[in-house]
Amino acid sequence: MSTFRIRHLYSGLTESIQSALGRRDPFLPPRRLIDTIGGGDFKAVGQEFFRYFTELGNLKPTDRVLDIGCGCGRMAVPLIPFLSKDGGYWGFDIVRSGIDWCQRNIAAKDPRFHFEWADVYNKAYNPEGTQPAGRYVFPYPDGFFDFVFLTSVFTHMLAQDMENYLAEISRVLKGDGRCLISFFLLNAQSRELLRRGSSSIDFQYEVPNGATSSLKAPEAAVAFDEAFIRDRFEANRLRLAEPIRYGSWCGRSDFLSYQDMTVSQKESTARS
């Protein structure tokens, strides 16, 4: 039996015992679901990004929040004690198991929280999905949200699909609404570090407007040219807040988090 299999069996047994004894955190998903979103410390990562939402994105308790690629609720859980009765959370994801868990364990207990499965095709995460990401329409009305965030979503999407999601983000944001997105961004510094072999991911294959780590599974890890992302933000009336907070992924010694972090604000009126 493999070490991976043994670890999962042990985790499952431990979780069952903790649940039976009433010692398990009701908002902590089982390890098998946590591993689908990258593993690690579920609570610590959620709290880390909660700080970014409030300190960089100016998230308020009364905001309507959209979590794109919400997984099994890692970013939702820290918002449970934070959002007021006038605020609300909506999340969607293409992996059904995480949505099912969130609906049973969070939404069923708290009417401020809403989770929806998106039947969107992704070779790695939802190969049976029927809707292409490049044409997917978010199931929310125009100007509905005050704050939108995506953590490690555009790092798994190619340019055409990402552009559609970015347009949808702009559509569902209120005027002056804020958005926080993590990326792998290619610029002079990160490309030089890649050339030196300092990066934790080898984006060796060029694709339109960026690069990928694998031609067989290009969505496994995608980096975009920073100039392209800046252009797409401007085209969608998303005013980028400077500076971009660059990450450690490429081997930087000065960084905020692992991925690069952008914060933007939707322009309240169209330019003349």
Secondary structure blueprint with pairings:
Layout: H1 3-20, H2 31-36, H3 42-55, E1 64-68, E2 88-93, H4 96-107, E3 113-117, E4 145-150, H5 159-172, E5 173-183, E6 185-186, H6 188-196, E7 205-207, E8 210-212, E9 222-225, H7 226-235, E10 238-240, E11 260-266
Parallel strand pairs: 1-2, 1-4, 2-3, 4-5, 6-9
Antiparallel strand pairs: 5-11, 7-8, 8-9, 10-11
Helical fraction? 25-40%
Series of H and E elements: HHHEEHEEHEEHEEEHEE
Overall average pLDDT: 91
Treating each run of at least 4 consecutive H or I residues as one helix, how many helices?
7
Largest sheet: 7 strands, mixed
Amount of beta strand: 15-25%
Order of strands, widest sheet: 3-2-1-4-5-11-10
Q: What is the third-level CATH name, the topology?
A: Rossmann fold
How many strands appear in the DSSP assignment? 11
The chain-level structural class is: alpha/beta
Low-confidence stretches: 1-21
Radius of gyration: 19 Å
CATH architecture: 3-Layer(aba) Sandwich
Specify the CATH class: Alpha Beta
Terminal residue distance: 65 Å
Overall geometry comes to globular
CATH superfamily: Vaccinia Virus protein VP39
Number of individual domains: 1
Which tags fit this structure?
272 residues; alpha/beta; Rossmann fold; seven-stranded mixed sheet; four-stranded mixed sheet; 11 strands; 31% helix
Tell me what you see in this structure.
The structure is a single chain. The chain is an alpha/beta fold and 272 residues long. It is 31% helix and 20% strand. The strands form 2 sheets. Strands 3-2-1-4-5-11-10 form a 7-stranded mixed sheet, with helices on both faces. Strand 7 and strand 8 (210-212) form a beta hairpin.
